[in-house]
Amino acid sequence: MRFLATFQTTDFFDTLFSLAVAFVLGMLIGAERQYRTRAAGLRTNVLVAVGAAAFVDLAMHLAGADGAVRVIAYVVSGIGFLGAGVIMKEGMNVRGLNTAATLWSSAAVGACAGADMAAQAVAVTVFVIAGNTLLRPLVNAINRIPFDERTSEATYSVRLTAGSAAADKLRDHLEERLEQANYPVADVEVETLEHAGDKVEIVATLVSTAVEPDELDIVIADLERRPGVDHASWETSTKD
């Protein structure tokens, strides 16, 4: 049997040590996420860390450091796809970015463990847990600061309610008016309003930037005076 010919006790225990380090450190990261009731909790972070450690350790034994470097590159991109699965977009808001970043960090911990860099794996774990716990009070303090549109970069949208017959003309005018006010438009959508007859809503999403509320108010007032416009307004989202 080839297994008996290639089995080396030292290499086997080296692999066990790498996997054990990844398991324990991934468990520490995942326990904090589980306590916060996040989508990716204890088991997910452990599996990501152990899986990354296993791939890197395998490459180390088969092709040495050069092979490990190539596998780490694939681990980084592969975890990117896994992280994308926990990111959810709800309207203008995006959720799950911190969870995805934590999974990415768990993979980094596992990669360090698989490359026999246990001390570095511990250091990365400490920083990841610190980022998810010690920075929380600072985040909450910043979030309690009153929002100022003139200094904050966010996503803004301008909405027009009008008849469908004038939608195309008003859409072009909306873009031109915002461009004149030096607020570039990233996207414009026309949405049919249910239970409102032939009414539509034109939504222009601005390029993320800081705005002057008074300037946008002037634009809105001008748009409301246009023939065919029933209502105009603007809103902001800071979750992107």
Molecular structure report:
The chain is α+β, with helices and mostly antiparallel strands. It has helices at residues 2-6, 9-35, 42-84, 97-114, 118-133, 136-143, 167-180, 213-224; strands at residues 88-90, 93-95, 155-163, 185-192, 199-206, 229-237. The protein has two domains: 6-143, no CATH class; 155-237, Alpha-Beta Plaits. The longest helix has 43 residues, at 42-84. It comes from Rhodopseudomonas palustris. Belongs to the MgtC/SapB family.
Question: What's the short story on this structure?
Answer:
This protein is 60% helix and 17% strand. It has helices at 2-6, 9-35, 42-84, 97-114, 118-133, 136-143, 167-180, 213-224; strands at 88-90, 93-95, 155-163, 185-192, 199-206, 229-237. It has a 4-stranded antiparallel β-sheet, with helices on one face. It has a two-stranded antiparallel sheet with strand order 1-2.
Helix and strand arrangement:
Elements: H1 2-6, H2 9-35, H3 42-84, E1 88-90, E2 93-95, H4 97-114, H5 118-133, H6 136-143, E3 155-163, H7 167-180, E4 185-192, E5 199-206, H8 213-224, E6 229-237
Antiparallel strand pairs: 1-2, 3-5, 3-6, 4-5
Helix pairs in contact: 2-3, 2-4, 2-5, 3-4, 4-5
Structural class: alpha+beta
Average per-residue pLDDT, rounded, comes to 83
Question: Which value, in Å, is the CA radius of gyration?
Answer: 26 Å
Rounded to the nearest angstrom, the distance between the terminal CA atoms is 56 Å
Unreliable residue runs = none
- Report on the biggest sheet: 4 strands, antiparallel
Percent range for helical residues?
55-70%
The total of beta strands comes to 6
Number of domains: 2
- How much of the sequence is in beta strands? 15-25%
Strand arrangement within the widest β-sheet reads 4-5-3-6
Pfam families: MgtC (PF02308), MgtC_SapB_C (PF21770)
Subcellular location: Cell inner membrane; Cell membrane
Domain MgtC-like C-terminal: 156-234
Transmembrane segments: 12-30, 42-62, 68-88
